[in-house]
Specification:
Helices cover 49% and strands 6% of the residues. The protein has 13 helices and 3 strands; from the N terminus they run βββααααααααααααα. A 3-stranded antiparallel sheet has the order 1-2-3, with no helix packed on it. Strand 1 (2-6) and strand 2 form a beta hairpin. Helix 2 packs antiparallel against helix 3 (103-116), helix 4 crosses helix 5 (148-155) and helix 7 (185-196) crosses helix 9. The radius of gyration is 33 Å and the shape is elongated. Residues 36-41, 49-61 and 79-84 have low confidence and may be disordered.
Length: 285
């Protein structure tokens, strides 16, 4: 070791020389220093190093790849992420298969994806949300609606983001002259009853109850109304179905919807399925 003036420490300090690399560093702060009193002599045994242009996948200064560094950036600073890294139609098919949807819905969702993916509002939306929203809208158009939460459970997309994306897609398709089918509680009822394995009698009673409830204009979403009707029919059948797991609604939603339907039970429940004395056995709202 020898003494050399360090610009960082602002004093003469001992330095350490690395003969392999030819570098000299301050022993106090570690800063590379240059001994101006000495003349640099190249090491004939050392091969020159040419700069290498970093490519995709090469680790950066912090050890992370370019892809990982990009993911760490805020959404507006990332590269365009509107298209999934994997083929989008494979993602659509995977979601459809997990939900037991047919080829017609897969094709419809793929067509929707082609039409909307280059739209500016979807520029920084996650691929999973765009795929889930396309499948959701395709189900609506094919009169086989599913819930947003079902879509999210199939590919891990965030519920709020899927809602925003599907709302934009439906508005865009309307401006393109396409019709968006209005969903009713009866549309969800068929799917929920099928998943729960309800008997034919119970399904018929639930369908009639939903029709009667819609005539009363009970202000509940189609999903909530379908779920509470199944809950009521299950109570009357002494067959406790886990409707909250199938409809993906909370117990609070069922409870609040039940309060709206309870005063009209005698009007909505078919008499061939339950008599007045049976209705009195139901829990009070």
């Amino acid at each position: 070791m020898s003494d050399t003036f360090c610009q960082v420490c602002k004093c003469f300090t001992e330095v350490v020389s690395d003969h392999a690399s030819g570098d000299t560093s301050c022993s106090e702060c570690g800063t590379l220093v240059v001994d101006e009193t000495s003349e640099w002599v190249p090491d004939p045994t050392r091969e020159p190093v040419s700069p290498v242009r970093p490519e995709s996948g090469v680790s950066g200064s912090n050890g992370a790849t370019e892809e990982e560094e990009e993911e760490a950036l805020p959404a507006p600073l990332r590269k365009r992420r509107g298209r999934p890294k994997r083929p989008p139609y494979e993602s659509i098919a995977e979601v459809a298969n997990r939900l037991g949807l047919g080829a017609t819905i897969k094709d419809r969702a793929s067509d929707i994806y082609k039409k909307v993916i280059d739209q500016k509002p979807l520029k920084y939306k996650t691929p999973a949300a765009v795929v889930a929203a396309c499948v959701y809208v395709a189900c609506r158009q094919e009169s086989n609606p599913r819930t947003v939460k079902e879509m999210c459970s199939a590919n891990g997309a965030k519920t709020k983001e899927v809602v925003r994306v599907k709302d934009f897609i439906m508005k865009y398709l309307v401006t393109e002259g396409q019709e968006i089918v209005i969903v009713h509680a009866a549309d969800f009822l068929r799917h929920f009853c099928s998943v729960l394995g309800m008997s034919n009698i119970e399904v018929m009673a639930a369908q009639e109850t939903v029709r009667n409830s819609e005539e009363l204009a009970i202000r509940r979403s189609p999903i909530s109304l379908a779920a509470v009707v199944i809950y009521i029919i299950a109570q009357l059948s002494n067959d406790k179905k886990a409707v909250t797991d199938v409809a993906l609604v909370t117990r609070a939603t069922i409870r609040n919807s039940y309060k709206d339907v309870y005063p009209h039970l005698s009007e909505v429940i078919p008499t061939w399925f339950a008599k007045e004395k049976d209705l009195k056995q139901l829990p009070r709202a």
